[in-house]
Design a protein that fits this description.
CATH architecture of the largest domain in chain A: 3-Layer(aba) Sandwich
Helix content of chain A: 40-55%
Largest interface: A-B, 38 and 34 residues
Strand order of the largest sheet of chain A: 7-6-8-9-10-11-12
Strand content of chain A: 15-25%
Helix content of chain B: over 70%
Shape of chain B: globular
Structural class of chain A: alpha/beta
Radius of gyration of chain B: 19 Å
Number of domains of chain B: 1
Oligomer: heterodimer
Order of helices and strands of chain B: HHHHEEHHHHHHH
Radius of gyration of chain A: 22 Å
Number of strands of chain A: 12
CATH topology of the largest domain in chain A: Rossmann fold
Shape of chain A: globular
Structural class of chain B: mainly alpha
Number of helices of chain B: 11
Number of domains of chain A: 2
Number of strands of chain B: 2
CATH superfamily of the largest domain in chain A: Response regulator
């Protein structure tokens, strides 16, 4: 009997065709539970769709690198296997999960991790093992450029880019005769919010705007009326929010409750891009602005095809944050393919040599090229505005799909 | 006092009333049975989802979905007592703590699994108005939540102090064996207490869902506040929980406005520790 089993096992092993290469494992960490659970799950779905696109053919995506859906061609058509873990939005769990994925699951590279504070600790762990970590969406300045770190590659634009963008936009508005003198910054108080708030503060000063108030708060707050009343007292022309999901929704509701409406609100992506934001507050947050490098585009384009697939998978449109993660996945897959190997050092070298043109991308970046710190120097973003039940590109004018509405209407 | 500060004081009291509302159920279980219910925040969250499901699939305004949440949570409370707590209470204290903690995780992630981590909101329906009292804006849903909190606390207090049922509940809390010898059936009474506690959390959740966005993970935040409110108010004292809720809501809002939102917890917990040092039995607890 035992012999029969052994024979069967040998036969089964032999039955695996010799040309089917082992799948390449990529570790993915996101906040699948915790306060940012909805954003994390949306990002996870986007990365999974990215893997499906690389692993099996889909129509209309041939312009993307590996978009033909035949696996990693240079590795004998190897498929990509994602190993997804939940870090709950907790920096120490993020580091633990990264360690587990690297030492137990033996992943070839890592991707993640939404909250900057988590990305910061997770990348420190991967760096210790020399495993490349591709950052899709975390924007705090301190993630790249740590002395001696070589294996972190960040595809997304960073805090400084957004801050400059906001100020250029506001300067444009001022030139057009709108009253923009005082701005206020309201930020959640972990790495993400603090980093974006600090750079925005600096950029505001450089561009000659007065920061009337900066209000840091905890994203777990149950009630935000004190913050809204502080804004009401400071009377800024424009308020910039750096917030996660539940808190950004709560701010919009509380501002209506306390009848406070500045001329313009700019939300820094994250909560304002969460798929839950528009259904919850679209009616009272008309004209709210946000940043994005994602545009669904017209039928027949790669972005439109991706959005159709994503919508079929999740039931909602792809958002900017998840889009940036999916883009990061494609960059990583392309690098592994060019490395022709799953050795970390070779993948690292291939990532460093990445050179992608806008036509090969799904996001509206000028391209993907990493500097010596691992930051994508060609990353870009534009400003969008909530009009009706969707965001429309409104600035810069050359990429606008709708006219800017100023001041914002809010609930009126 | 500036208008904004006055608004903050009003907001603080209204928020405090909500804190009192969802904490009163905990004081019933903790004070009456000596069971620390770590799942109390999850009861509030279940109330939010019960209300949301009612509103979504059966229609109806705040009155309907609040009552529905109360009934559903009452049943859940009774079932949990009969299925889990009754047996666990005979074991050591640690078993109780772990059982209710495990229950909290089970409820949280069961809802998470069934409804996804999406952040939801519940329309205030007929309550969707704002009162303007000389520049002070009061949202009707919050005012109603505050009034219901007061009414519930008063009702519970009267039930415990003025009725035979209340006396029996207290007798069981005091000495289960002796109560049984007097012909009281502790199981029925304690099942009732769990039902009432869960129902009050359900009412709180339903009302809060009209002004706070919620997700399956919301309960965590409220559980901590509830423990602080009950401790500060004095174990088992329903009026104490009411008073403590108001005090905490007020301190939170005023300190967030005057000093800054990131310091509000430092102020609240600093005062909390100081007060307990001076008065370990809580504001209205018996020494």
């Amino acid at each position: 009997m035992r012999h029969t089993f052994a024979a069967a096992a040998v036969l089964m092993l032999a039955a695996v065709p010799a040309w089917a290469a082992d799948p390449v494992k990529i570790g993915v960490i996101f906040p699948l539970s915790g306060n940012a659970g909805s954003a994390g799950n949306a990002a996870k779905a986007a990365v999974e769709l990215g893997a499906e696109i690389v692993n099996s053919p889909h129509q209309g995506l041939e312009a993307l690198p590996l978009g033909e859906g035949k696996g990693l061609a240079n590795l004998g058509g190897a498929k990509i296997e994602l190993i997804v873990a939940d870090h709950q939005g907790d920096p120490s769990v993020g580091a633990q999960q990264t360690l587990r994925l690297i030492t137990q699951d033996k992943v070839a590279a890592m991707l993640g991790a939404y909250q900057s504070s988590v990305t910061f600790t997770a990348t420190a762990t991967s760096e210790r093992y020399g495993i490349p970590f591709v950052v899709g969406d975390s924007v705090a300045a301190n993630i790249t450029g740590r002395p001696g770190f070589k294996s972190i590659f960040r595809v997304t634009p960073v805090a400084g880019d957004f801050a400059t963008n906001y100020m250029l936009f506001l300067a444009d508005m001022k030139k057009a005769g709108r009253k923009v003198d005082q701005i206020a910054i309201v930020n959640e108080n972990t790495d993400y919010g603090t980093s974006v708030a600090d750079t925005t503060q600096k950029a505001a000063k450089e561009h000659g705007f007065t920061v009337a108030a900066q209000i840091p708060y905890s994203a777990k707050s149950t009630d935000v009326s004190p913050q809204v009343l502080q804004l009401k007292e400071a009377k800024p022309d424009v308020v910039i929010f750096i917030s996660y999901t539940a808190d950004s929704i709560l701010y919009m509701k509380t501002m209506k409750d306390l009848d406070y409406r500045p001329a313009m609100i700019i939300g820094d992506d994250s909560g304002f891009s969460d798929p839950n934001f528009i259904p919850a507050v679209a009616e009272i947050a008309q004209g709210v602005m946000n940043r994005s490098a994602w545009d669904v585009g017209k039928p027949g384009t790669v972005t439109y095809a991706i959005n159709t697939l994503y919508k079929a998978k999740t039931g909602h449109d792809l958002d900017d944050t998840s889009g940036r993660d999916m883009q990061a996945f494609f960059v990583l897959a392309d690098a592994i393919n060019r490395a022709q190997s799953t050795e970390p050092e070779k993948i690292r070298a291939a990532l460093q040599a990445t050179s992608l043109a806008p036509a090969q991308l799904m996001m509206g970046y000028r391209g993907v090229k990493f500097d010596e710190t691992g930051q994508n120097t060609e990353a870009a973003t534009y400003l969008i505005q909530l009009q009706g039940k969707a965001y429309q590109a409104v600035w810069p004018e050359k990429s606008a799909t709708a006219a800017l509405q100023w001041p914002m209407a809010g609930w009126k | 006092m500036s208008l904004n500060l006055l608004q903050i004081v009003v907001n603080g009291l209204l928020l405090g009333a909500v804190y009192a509302l969802f904490s009163s159920g905990l004081t019933l279980i903790w004070g009456m049975m000596n069971v620390i219910n770590f799942a109390h925040g999850e009861f509030v969250m279940l109330g939010m989802f019960a209300a949301w499901l009612t509103q979504r699939y059966l229609a109806g305004g705040p009155l309907v979905f609040t009552l529905a949440a109360a009934v559903v949570l009452f049943l859940i409370g009774v079932v949990i007592y009969v299925a889990i707590i009754r047996d666990v209470m005979r074991g050591p204290m640690l078993a109780q703590i772990l059982a209710t903690f495990g229950l909290a995780l089970l409820l949280r992630y069961a809802v998470f699994w069934a409804f996804s981590p999406d952040v939801r909101t519940l329309p205030a329906g007929a309550l969707d108005h704002t009162l303007d009292l000389g520049g002070i804006l009061i949202r009707l849903p919050r005012l109603v939540a505050g009034l219901v909190a007061g009414a519930l606390a008063l009702g519970m207090h009267l039930l415990l102090t003025r009725t035979a049922l209340g006396s029996r509940l207290l007798a069981v809390a005091e000495d289960r064996q002796a109560a049984m010898l007097m012909g009281i059936r502790p199981d029925r009474l304690q099942a009732l207490a769990w039902g009432l506690a869960a129902a009050s959390a359900g009412i709180a959740g339903a009302l809060m869902a009209t002004f706070f966005p919620f997700s399956p993970l919301t309960g965590e935040t409220y559980a901590l506040t509830a423990f602080v409110v009950v401790t500060l108010g004095g174990f088992g004292s329903v009026p104490g929980a009411m008073l403590a809720g108001l005090v905490i809501g007020l301190i939170e809002q005023v300190s967030a406005y005057e000093i800054g939102p990131i310091y509000q917890d430092v102020v609240v917990y600093g005062l909390f520790v100081a007060l307990l040092w001076l008065r370990p039995q809580g504001l209205l607890g018996k020494a």
